[in-house]
Amino acid sequence: MRSIALMIAFVISFTAPALAQKAEIEAINAKWIELFNKGDFSGVASLYSTDATAFPPGSAMVHGRSAIEAMWKSMAEQVGDPKLATLDVKPLGPSAAREIGTFALKTKGPTPKDVTGKYVVVWEKVDDDWKLTTDIWNEGN
């Protein structure tokens, strides 16, 4: 009986941080969407680590906050109304996590289209804040 209780405590000790990380990351994702929709691309970039890298589909890697800010500002001219759905967060220790999710957005222009896809993000705890450090996404299921 005692070994079962220890096993349950062991499992809970790993599950609780994962749930906390997921909740914190989902809150930052909501903030990302809010900032994007307001056109605050400096704010969007502030959610990334200073040495972050983004991997936009069909384009070169984008390094650093100022380049990521410019990337999102440019993309906002073509797309809008982003939505994110976190499917899984895997802790990579107390100060890192990997997130897998899906996104949806609408293209702008005379014939708007719905676009859906998937993403993988690596998060890093910088001081007390979670920051995106690696961001890659593409269309499709």
Automatic annotation (TrEMBL):
It comes from the Bacteria. Residues 1-20 form the signal peptide. Pfam families: DUF4440. Residues 25-132 form the DUF4440 domain. This is SgcJ/EcaC family oxidoreductase. The keyword Signal applies. Gene3D superfamilies: 3.10.450.50. The keyword S-adenosyl-L-methionine does not apply. It comes from Bradyrhizobium pachyrhizi. Keywords: Signal.
